[in-house]
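Example for tutorial group B:
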C-alpha cells in the first residue's frame, strides 16, 4: 500500500495511506497522474492543503481512517460513530471540520458534520440558536429583521410572522 504525504497550512506534513487520501476528491485531483497506482511515488512531494489548519486536518484524517476501517458497517453503526466523533467537539471545531471537509471534497464527512449540526439546530428555538451562535450580540428587534428583508434579493425569505420564541 503506497503512502501519500499531505501538508497543512502550517507546513506540517502527514503521511497517510493512499486509500485514506483518495477519500478526499481535492487530494485525489492534486495527486500526480499515473497509469497504475504503483507507478508513482506519492510520498516524494507533499500535497499542499493551505486551507486546512493542522488540528483540523488531523481530525479529518482520523475520521477518514476510521471510516475506511469500518466501511462495511451498517448505516446505524456509522451514524452512531459519527455522532460520537462530533459529540465532544465545540462548535468552532465542528464548523472548521465541515469547512475542511468541503474544501477537501470529502462528501461523507461533510454530510456527517452537516447532519450533526442539523440535529443540534432542530432541538433549539430561534432564540436559543441566536444565543448559541451570537453570544455577544443582542437579539435584533422585529423592525431590524424586517429592514434586512427589505432588500429585493432577500424578500423571498421574509418571515412576516417571525418571533424569537
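The residue assignment follows.
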Amino acid at each position: 500500500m503506497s503512502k501519500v504525504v499531505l501538508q497543512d497550512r502550517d507546513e506540517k506534513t502527514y503521511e497517510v495511506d493512499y486509500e485514506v487520501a483518495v477519500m478526499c476528491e481535492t487530494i485525489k485531483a492534486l495527486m500526480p497522474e499515473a497509469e497504475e497506482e504503483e507507478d508513482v511515488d506519492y510520498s516524494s512531494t507533499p500535497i499542499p492543503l493551505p486551507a486546512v489548519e493542522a488540528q483540523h486536518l488531523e481530525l479529518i484524517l482520523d475520521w477518514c481512517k476510521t471510516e475506511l476501517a469500518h466501511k462495511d458497517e451498517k448505516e446505524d453503526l456509522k451514524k452512531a460513530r459519527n455522532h460520537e466523533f462530533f459529540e465532544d467537539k465545540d462548535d468552532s471545531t465542528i464548523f472548521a471540520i465541515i469547512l475542511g471537509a468541503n474544501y477537501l471534497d470529502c462528501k461523507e464527512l461533510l454530510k456527517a458534520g452537516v447532519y450533526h449540526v442539523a440535529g443540534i439546530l432542530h432541538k433549539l428555538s430561534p432564540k436559543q440558536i441566536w444565543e448559541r451562535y451570537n453570544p455577544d450580540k443582542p437579539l435584533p428587534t422585529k423592525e431590524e429583521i424586517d429592514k434586512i428583508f427589505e432588500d429585493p434579493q432577500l424578500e423571498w425569505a421574509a418571515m412576516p410572522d417571525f418571533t424569537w420564541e
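The beta strands are 3-7, 13-17, 47-48. Compare this with the pattern of hydrophobic and polar residues in the output above.
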